[in-house]
Amino acid sequence: MSRIPLFGAALAVAASLAFPTLANDAIRIEDAYFRMATPMAPNGAAFMIIHNDADTDDRLIDARSPIAKRVELHTHIDMGEGVMKMTHDEDGFEIPAHGSRALARGGDHVMFMGLIERPGDGESIPLTLVFEKAGEIVLEVPVDLERADGMGHGGHGHGAGGMGHGEGGMGHGEGGMSHGHGN
């Protein structure tokens, strides 16, 4: 057996692990990761790019995971004077037809409140995303506690709702979830 095809297969597997893309017929999830501000933080968040290859808009309407007491779709509202308020977005996030939406730090994200498990860097967590039209997509999201920016790529402004990348930690309590952002 030649080593070249074996090396090529190993390289393909390594590339898929480094840049996971998960999909169903219409929705693709790219560059998903989970992080906590500190190893003992009570909360965490998942970030990703959601691509919609369908001819119609879809909407992320819910998220579930057994590692937290509550999992919600969150966004940030500018309260003025450099203060952003994180809030549950009950309407979910629209994913435009043939477009994408970034769930990024400082913007829309999947919030895990009351962590039951605290996974370590390099592990993965189960996450089910529920879409209005595409249905459920079950993911294993890698834990990346070291990532400093919002996404693994440069800035994203894909489709309707592309997010600017802010700064800030995730020390959000279950009460009034406000925090300031540095300039």
From TrEMBL:
Keywords: Signal. This is Copper-binding protein. InterPro entries: LpqE-like (IPR007410), Lxx211020-like (IPR058248), PCuAC_sf (IPR036182). SUPFAM superfamilies: DR1885-like metal-binding protein. Residues 1-23 form the signal peptide. PANTHER family: BLR7088 PROTEIN (PTHR36302), COPPER CHAPERONE PCU(A)C (PTHR36302:SF1). Residues 152-183 are annotated as: Disordered.
